[in-house]
Amino acid sequence: MARHVFLTGPPGVGKTTLIQKASELLKSSGVPVDGFYTEEVRQGGRRIGFDVVTLSGMRGPLSRVGLEPPPGRRECRVGQYVVDLAAFEQLALPVLKNVTKENRNHLLLDIVTCVQSSGK
Predict the structure, then answer these.
(1) Among residues 21, 30, 53, 110, which one has the fewest Cβ atoms lying within 10 Å of its Cβ?
(2) pLDDT, tens only, 6-31
């Protein structure tokens, strides 16, 4: 039977750390896992955005403060962050597309919601 666990909580309580530790433990026990999580990016002690990191070790920008979208691309914002949809689609979507009946119980995700800003 599939089991789903949802972690919620304010920033800094350890949700992503738990995902990282759980994936390390499962991998070291020989359990195949796949998925992704987000990790904050800091510059000069200030959070400037987030990266999406796959459990296979690939990393790319998820969002940055005030980043302008490439020309011709729709801007997607979450608060002060502009989301890099292309990077997210390149890294996270293949993880989701590779889910099968056999491996769906071994998927770890740190889900991020993208809300389109009004007027764009």
Answers:
(1) 30
(2) 778 887 888 888 888 888 888 898 87
Contact 78, 116 (CB under 8 A): no
**Contact partners, residue 61, CB within 8 Å, separation at least 6:** 41, 49, 50, 51, 52, 84, 87
Neighbours of 119 (CB within 10 A): 5
> How far apart are the C-alpha atoms of 46 and 50, rounded to whole Å?
12
Phi, psi for 65 (deg, rounded to 5) = -70, 130
Write out the two tokens for 99.
């889910």
The Cα 88–Cα 59 span in angstroms is 10
CA dihedral 39, 44, 46, 47 (to 10 degrees): -20
CA–CA separation, 41 and 19 (whole Å): 17
